[in-house]
Amino acid sequence: MRVALIGLPKSGKSTLFSAATGVAVDPFAAPQIHRNVVKVPDERLDYLAKLFSPKKYTEATIEFLDVPGISLGDPGGPAEFRKVLPDIRMADVLAVVVRDFENASTPKYKDRIDPRADLGEVWDELLFADLEAVTTRVERLQKSLQKPSKTHDPDKHELALLTRCKDALESEKPLSAVLDNVDERRMVASFAFLTEKPLIAVRNVSESRIAEAPSPLSPHARDNLSVCASVEADIAALPPDDRKPFMADLGLNTSARDQLIRACYAAGGLISFLTMGPDEVRAWTIAKGANAVEAAGRIHTDLARGFIRAETVAFADLVAHTDMKGAKAAGKVRQEGKTYIVQDGDILNIKFNV
Ligand SMILES: Nc1nc2c(ncn2[C@@H]2O[C@H](COP(=O)(O)OP(=O)(O)O)[C@@H](O)[C@H]2O)c(=O)[nH]1
Ligand SMILES: [Mg+2]
């Protein structure tokens, strides 16, 4: 999964990126995209590792992108935004970071601290970017439809759909509300529309409000987080064993990094399944709703091609009965077929034949 941290300038995107990845960003470097792949911490893997002492321990991964601020009021701002748009379009989830912190040494955007208005401004840019892409394509299709061509029928079909998209965007509706079936989404997939992507609002609060409960900032956000990015970046820079006590002192249960990862999985409609054995314990990311063959294919195409069945046990059942032997004795190990919908935390052993 790829997550883009976006927002207005100086909202704390790079600071949150550091908190999420542990990678420091030079505040004086020229604006550019930073990327880092993070291992997704998973306590379930720790349990499995104790059972097997495996040779390899492989977490799922998530990639974070720190994208320079959207600053369209500035001269050159729109051009800068266009430059980073293709990278934002590659993301599966957008996390919009908005400023809600006091800091005398950080100039305020438009001389205000107004997270709701800031998020609204970013949202408008996302709508506008999609509208621009749709309009360009609509005009091209209208032109080509005036002449006979081999693609007349599919073009007409696409034009009808994109016209609906254009109408929606013009009345400030996101495309996630327009594209309501798989076929339509597939038809426009190559546009990688921004308002079709799940969005998370991250309110970056002052140190004094660090343990504040999140409150919704926009009806368009699937989830809302409230974090103090600067403290969280300090936490991420500590040796792992020192983090918990430091957080406890601040009244924090979950780090911004873990909150963000969890929210991205949920908003992105993703789950993990696990595999285990003496060679490797491993977590794999798949879409919620994926079946056993799709899960097998995630591991290796051979496993999907030669799929016979998936020996399955829920992680919670394994723990309740200590190990595989106990789970088997309790009748908790199931033999599932191709159409079985994999659940978060399922431990799979794919039986296959190629
Ligand atoms: N007090 C305070 N300052 C912050 C916080 N988050 C970021 N800053 C400061 O705000 C400035 C801009 O942050 P940065 O992450 O570079 O913003 P970006 O432009 O969105 O990447 C930096 O000087 C940060 O140290 C925060 O939670 N509290
Ligand atoms: Mg930055």
What does this structure look like?
The protein is of the alpha/beta class and 354 residues long. It has a domain at 289-352: Ubiquitin-like (UB roll) (Roll), CATH 3.10.20. Helices cover 41% and strands 20% of the residues. It contains 13 helices and twelve strands. It has a six-stranded mixed beta sheet, sandwiched between helices. A three-stranded mixed beta sheet has the order 3-9-8. The chain has a three-stranded antiparallel beta sheet with strand order 11-10-12. Helix 1 runs parallel beside helix 7, helix 1 crosses helix 9 (256-267) and helix 4 runs antiparallel to helix 5. It is flat, with a radius of gyration of 23 Å. Bound molecules: guanosine-5'-diphosphate and magnesium ion.
Tell me the layout of helices and strands.
Blueprint: E1 2-6, H1 13-21, E2 34-39, H2 43-52, E3 56-58, E4 61-66, H3 77-89, E5 93-100, H4 115-144, H5 152-170, H6 182-187, E6 199-205, E7 223-227, H7 229-237, H8 240-250, H9 256-267, E8 270-275, E9 280-287, H10 292-299, H11 301-305, E10 307-314, H12 315-320, H13 324-329, E11 334-336, E12 346-352
Parallel strand pairs: 1-4, 1-5, 3-9, 5-6, 6-7
Antiparallel strand pairs: 2-4, 8-9, 10-11, 10-12
Bound molecules: guanosine-5'-diphosphate and magnesium ion.
